[in-house]
Every structure is written in C-alpha cells, then in structure tokens.
Design a protein that fits this description.
It contains five helices and twelve strands. It is of the alpha+beta class. The chain has a single domain, classed as Aminohydrolase, N-terminal nucleophile (Ntn) domain (Glutamine Phosphoribosylpyrophosphate, subunit 1, domain 1, 4-Layer Sandwich). The strands form two sheets. The protein has a six-stranded antiparallel β-sheet with strand order 2-3-1-9-8-10. A six-stranded antiparallel β-sheet has the order 4-5-6-7-11-12. The two termini are 30 Å apart. Residues 216-221 have low confidence and may be disordered.
C-alpha cells in the first residue's frame, strides 16, 4: 500500500498546515518515506509507502522537476534500457526521465498501476496522472489560493474550511448507482478519471482532462 499528497499554494505553507497534511494522509503501517518542500515553502509533496515498495519522490535539481510516484511499473526493465538508466534507479526517477524525453505523452509508455504527480518548479505547473484502471485513486481540490492533491479524500476534507455535499452525486447514486465521471459525494472535490492526465497552472486546470490511450503493441519506442 502507498499514498501520496501534495499542496501548491499562492502563499507560504505554514508548519501547522504541513503537519496537518502529514497527519491526515498517513495510514496505519505506512511510513513517511519521502518529503519535499521547496525554498519558497509554497509547494510540498509527501510520499507514504511500505519499505518493500519502490514508491518515492525524485528531485532533479538541474530541471527543477519533482516527481511523486506511488505504485509499480511492470515494464521497468524495458524503460531502463530505452532511457539508458542504471538498473537500481527508482521508479520516480524513471518517470522523471520519461517525462523529460516524451513530454505529456509519457504515460502511454508506462505499464503498471500508479498515481503520479509531477511538479515543474520553473513553470509552477502540476501534472497529475492515473493508470488506465484507476487502481491508485487520486483526488484533487482547487480553491482561489491553492491546489490540493491526495490519495485520500479524507486528507482534503480535513484541510478545507467549507465542506458541502454534492447532492447531484448523491441523487445519481440512489438512482443509477454510478455518478458522472470524476464526481465525488463532496462539492468541489474530484477524482481523476482512470487513464487520465491533468495539467494545473496559474490557478487553472489547463486542457481539461487528457485521456491516455495506452499502447497495446509490444515494445516501447
């Protein structure tokens, strides 16, 4: 099991908020494996995972790109060869190199179950990715001053001041059982759809949701 969270704010993130983010994301038997907070203290990323899982945060100082990864990559060996990386490289570092090589199309070349958050510090841009089955749920919330992402909806609920029920989702649940894609039972809290990539920059969600069509042929180019 593994969990992640991140917060991008227009203001300095207080120690109290940071601790609240940690407390509400962590789960029983999970360790805070990786933590990153930038010099401006307006972005924080947290990664919780068992020691036996290769989930962590990778920071590339040259490009100022931070990758928060949880899950597993089944075609890891193939990607290592294509990207000319060491065999002991972490999964988050593989994602970092894949993003720099292939840009927004990199997820179609990653096979496995995962949730990924990429932060481009130079552009203050967040990229959020979920695998095609949505096996690692990822939720997000946007306010006027901040953007919050987490594996747990509870984390978001405990950090925001106004909590409102999504009545249309509740209605759809009792009538159709399933609701509209991405909706949750709470207003303004959404779940990233399976097989999707979302871009957030300048307090806006850019390009909406980009649906990823994973490659089905053998091999990755």
């Amino acid at each position: 099991m593994s969990l992640l969270s991140c917060l991008l704010s227009n203001e300095k993130i207080s120690v109290k908020t940071k601790n609240k983010l940690i407390t509400n994301t962590q789960s029983k038997n999970l360790l805070l494996k990786s933590e990153y907070i930038n010099n401006k203290k307006d972005f924080i990323a947290l990664n919780f995972s068992n020691n036996n899982l290769d989930s962590d945060i990778d920071v590339c100082k040259a490009s100022e790109i931070i990758v928060n990864f949880i899950g597993d990559i089944t075609n890891r060996s193939e990607l290592i060869k294509i990207l000319n990386l060491r065999k002991d490289v972490t999964n988050s570092s593989i994602i970092n190199h894949a993003y720099k090589k292939w840009g927004y199309s990199f997820p179609v070349r990653i096979y496995g179950f995962f949730s990924i958050i990429i932060y481009n510090s130079k552009e203050r841009k967040l990229i959020i990715v979920n695998d095609h089955l949505g096996s690692k749920p990822i939720y997000y919330y946007k306010s006027a001053n901040a953007f919050l992402v987490s594996s747990k909806i509870k984390t978001i609920l405990n950090l925001i001041k106004i909590k409102e029920a999504n009545n249309s989702r509740i209605r759809d649940y009792f009538i159709f059982f399933n609701g509209k894609p991405g909706e949750t039972f709470f207003s303004n809290i959404f779940r990233l759809e399976p097989g999707s990539l979302m871009i957030y920059q300048n307090n806006k969600i850019l390009k909406g949701i980009i649906h990823i069509h994973f490659l089905l042929k053998d091999g990755v180019k």
